Amino acid sequence: MSISVGLNCPACGGAIQISEGENVLSCNYCGSLLWAEGDAGVMTVAFRNVQGRDAVLRATEEWWRKGLKARDLRTKGKLLECYPIYLPFWSTTTRVAGWICGYEERRHTDRNGNTRTERIPKEEMVLHDYRYTNIACDPGDLGIKYLRNMVGEASFADFESIPTFESTTSKDDMVEMSKQNALSDARSDANVPHITFEKVTAIPKHINQIFYPVWVVRYSYGERMYMATVDGVTGQVLSGRAPGDALYQSLAMTGGTSVSGLIAAGSLAIGIGTGEGAVAIIGLVIGAVILGFTYRFFRHGSEMIEGDFDDKRSSNLAKELQKGLKFNLGGFRT
Amino acid sequence: MKVVQIKCPRCQQPIYSKVKDRAFYCGHCRTMHIRNGGPNVIDFDIGEFNINAPPDRVYMPFWRLFSTISINRSKVSGGNFHKLGRMIKGDAKGGNLFIYVPAWETDVNEFKHWSMEFTENQPMYSLRPDFNNVERGATSVSKEEAMQMADFVIVTMEAERPGVLQYLDYGLQVHDARLVYLPFVRGTSGLAPGL
Fold this sequence. Notes:
Order of helices and strands of chain A: EEEEEHHEEEHEEEHHEHE
Number of domains of chain B: 2
Largest sheet of chain B: 7 strands, mixed
Order of helices and strands of chain B: EEEEEEHEEHEHEE
Shape of chain A: flat
Distance between the termini of chain B: 43 Å
Number of helices of chain B: 3
Radius of gyration of chain B: 18 Å
Strand content of chain A: 35-45%
Strand content of chain B: 35-45%
Structural class of chain A: alpha+beta
Oligomer: heterodimer
Helix content of chain B: 10-25%
Number of helices of chain A: 6
Largest sheet of chain A: 8 strands, mixed
Largest interface: A-B, 47 and 39 residues
């Protein structure tokens, strides 16, 4: 997992490459040791845009076919504009080292119904490198907050021709946020329910600024305008809004209400018949939950949303990446 | 972003190496420097090999942290052996201690092993002025990072003793960090001290 940055050796002019997070390198041609440094200790790299307009439009049309989007989107959707931009991201690596001690409690119940609580002491070592990314500007309605891909060729060659968003968030804020996230994740990984002693240190190791190419595709469907974004390196759709399908909404409503009604009524009948009140209550709860999901889909199914939107109503990738792209490197050597 | 050739801050000779090392050693004037913003010349020690040490020799870098530690209270479930108290030079509750932090890129177990091994059994060695053409391991841990790892080493030593650590109230102050190259020998089972 590295970004290769094409540079030239200041001693011999030979081509050199540096991986993300490193600032010491050796020239393969003359053997000089070299030191790479960025402004205020921040190394800045830009991924090269390798996707063309045609490939981006194909990826968008492919995305239209997936999920519960309107079935006629491929025929009625009209592509209006498609252009690349560079978005700035912060990328950090934070090492967490320490110990979290405490105990967990386990309850045992014997045949007579007596409950005994056993306290099991725990001491957990934490020694991990945590990596996070976060967008360094206001993403507006793009639905992109985190960087998902870290493999590609880095080059500033496209900087002249592609509009670039400037960073509006500070490096110090990102470092602090990464430390807090790393400590929180480390505590979570240690899994000590009751903590009696904790000595954990978060050590910032690297911070880089990464400019990443993203294609913005705008299209219309019926009277409404929609948008999708496509990764300029991998060609995958990152985020977007698309029209839903009325048929799917109707089917979900009909099926959902029927299933929830059957479960609720069935469990109620069984519960009353057998005298088991718990069965009736569980059935009613399950029925209510299914009905809730059904209503949610019916209510919001007119628009499918994918990406890191704050007002997101549909399930998608962003939930699993809530805290940013987190690479648990699992130790020192990566 | 700019890339500069690393030169010795004392004699201005370029430094050549195929190894990515954060501690830059000038073979011309025997100066070691690190970079943190600008170049900083640092003092360092090189330990002499035992004359009987096998030939596959290598110097491995450690940050030796001169520290003062005081232990106020410790609670262990299922054990009462006090490991730290034995090693501190001073009274049983506090005193001075050299903490050794491996400065090369290690895995977790190797890091724990060598930091505890040398902090617990302080290495005795005579100094030599150069590396005598013996290979040296690359330094990847910065001085600041090593100083922040001191707490981890101290708590690890207490946690690794018999029983399960439940509480440790201690004070730790790191006064100074020095890069120390200790002699090692490569064997079939990994590195072994060559002191």
